[in-house]
Design brief:
The protein is an all-beta fold. The protein has no helices and eight strands. It starts with a strand and ends with a strand.
């Protein structure tokens, strides 16, 4: 899953994106094993970070799980959370 961060400001910002532990046999990590990747989002632009999602063998088929991503900007500006529903088919 790719989480995109949009910057509607007129200056670039550094943003840290994270997700709390999902549990229940699911594993979610940012690419390259980073727990809280920090990315530069250009003024008026966007940047994305990939989060591979793995359902362990203990996760039953046909189950849904809510996944919430959080972001914190370098200037402590509010960044709305992103929520996704993941499904093991």
């Amino acid at each position: 899953m790719t989480v995109d961060v949009y910057n509607f400001d007129d200056t670039a910002h550094r943003v840290t994106v994270s997700t709390p532990k999902v549990g229940g046999g699911w594993t979610v990590r940012a690419d390259r094993g980073q727990n809280q990747p920090c990315l530069r989002v250009p003024a008026g632009g966007r940047a994305g970070v990939n989060f591979p999602i793995v359902a362990g063998s203990s996760v039953p088929r046909r189950i849904d799980r809510r996944l919430a991503f959080r972001a914190t900007a370098d200037d402590h500006a509010e960044v709305p959370a992103t929520v996704a529903l993941i499904h093991r088919g």
